[in-house]
Amino acid sequence: MVALKPQYITDNMGKKVSVVLSIDDFKGIMEELEELEDIKLYYAAKKSKDSSVPIEEAFKMIEEKRAAK
Fold first, then answer.
1. Is it the case that residue 2 has pLDDT exceeding 80?
2. From the DSSP assignment, how many helices (H) and strands (E) are in the chain?
3. What is the pTM of this model?
């Protein structure tokens, strides 16, 4: 998990309206979000009744389409 050190921008009433993060914190959050998205896609694919293709075959199909262009 990313340990954040956010800074807040407030309005005239002291209400927090924005957050400032370091680049490292931002990159860490983005990496976590990408990993979570991958996990969600994995579980969605697992629940799906669609047929699957082994990854090697999928890569071969993609390469064949590229070569045909």
1. no
2. 2, 2
3. 0.60
